[in-house]
Write the structure tokens for this entry.
Amino acid sequence: MLTITLRQLQYFDALARIGHFGRAAEACFVSQPALTVQIQELENQLGARLVERGRRGAVLTEAGQRIAERTRKLLREAEDLVQSAQASSAPLAGRLRLGIIPTVAPYLLPTLLPFLRQTYPDLELHVRETQTAILLDEVEAARIDVMLAALPIAHPDLESLALFEDRFVLAAPHHHETEGRVVLSEDWLRREPLLLLEEGHCFRDQAIRYCALRQVSSHNTLGASSFATIMRMVANGLGMTLLPEIAVTAEARSEDIRILRLEEPEPSRVLGLLWRRESPRTADIRALAEAISIAQQALAGWSRVP
Amino acid sequence: MLTITLRQLQYFDALARIGHFGRAAEACFVSQPALTVQIQELENQLGARLVERGRRGAVLTEAGQRIAERTRKLLREAEDLVQSAQASSAPLAGRLRLGIIPTVAPYLLPTLLPFLRQTYPDLELHVRETQTAILLDEVEAARIDVMLAALPIAHPDLESLALFEDRFVLAAPHHHETEGRVVLSEDWLRREPLLLLEEGHCFRDQAIRYCALRQVSSHNTLGASSFATIMRMVANGLGMTLLPEIAVTAEARSEDIRILRLEEPEPSRVLGLLWRRESPRTADIRALAEAISIAQQALAGWSRVP
DNA sequence: CGTAATGATAGGAAAATTCAATTTTTGCCA
DNA sequence: TGGCAAAAATTGAATTTTCCTATCATTACG
């Protein structure tokens, strides 16, 4: 008679992911007993033990793992169902949850958000900023609808759309008076350390890969959590950094910083959207892509890159 | 936050299928207001109108149709999830819902059920007897797990497994003293009307197709709802009929009935199981197939077909 | 108009879910 | 072994949800 409930499945999904009754309950914004009871009820309904309770929290049984997999799928589809209903009305109306990587969000959003608010007043955009790996998890679990990150990302269940190319430029202290394109040499790097973001940022990896390609070692990598910090250091003559062009306008205001183009072929990243292939919001997502492109073009227009 | 409930979806699914609040409520074993309220709640949660209420009941809106489709899919998967848990323990344990066509059920079940009860005491078999078309719907909607019917049936979402061949024999009044194989001729059919089951039984269609193949017209087709009725008439000399061999032992007990083999190539049907490709019970279903084959062989051993 | 069919609404009862507080279980370590 | 601490289960009361009966509102049709 199908007596289980979506709530039970949500609790179980949280428990399966987190492996701890108390913390899973917290993640669901309910008390531990509430979650415990629902899990027990689910086990009764299914006639199978799903988790082993032990000193170190909850561990899924074999059956539990199978069920957890189906549960995730079911919850994704339930999400889709709700989204699908919301997508029924106008384009870009209702709630849309967008994830953006930290090396893009602060530069794109100031242009994108006002534009969206004006063009699609019925859109309720939820923005989440984290690193690619976490965003990928969340897209896959239908906790966000679409993410903006650096492509390419190969994933069987995700679809992607490239939006624009974002070149990397060199930000150095103002005493560098070089004209024209710059060559990144080992020699130079020794004099002027390269400051990079902390681990986990894909931009950091891309920068390191570029250095490796240019046969220069990129040690001495501070590990800041934002360009703002790094640029403060650059302005104070503590080193230089690679900066995505999209960030130039915002981060290189100071007269103490000199923005230099790199020799051809210039390094760059391709930014694009990713979403679950089965997402019912594809129409909205394509409209969003359009909006982002417009915002980016406006942004590029103001750039003071030479 | 995913605030809809499976119950709402069940009610909506019933409403979508039935198109009438009162009767849908009845089908869900709740009162009409209960269903109405849940549908309203669902519409609120989704932020979309799903049904047009009118004088002639409820009609789905365009959005409603899309949602109904997703709802069906979701409910199917929820069913699968529950089944999948029940399938975890022993083979053929837990509830298994089997649909059988009426021209098979009464002959196979008396042998099959005791055998299953003995071999798989933990199996809780629910048997449903109806015609192929209805069974197909129910298999597809995951309201039954597997069906036994005459193959071939082509359906993208269903898998099938042929179990055994069931020949057709001729059941005629005892005054027919013919020895050996019989040829079904137009001439004969004029003297002795062919009695058939009512519309909807696939066996009726198969019988008619055989007659057409043999170039004899098969009008005068009473339309009984069971072989029992037909055989009573045959025994009283009111005509003859085609009978599946599986039914011979049960239906041709009377000395007033003569069972005659037909000339080669003998007509027959292939009986087999059908189930949804994604059903989590395939292991159980294959065990069931085994059991049915055994039951059928026992049955064939007792047959008094010449 | 009245009527019959259909869905919506109201009010109270029953069931479920939840929370805070407490107890039991479990594994660990002295 | 016995105490300790973390984790989950249980308890009991409060809250929320769901349901039912009875009634109302709307609509189309004779």
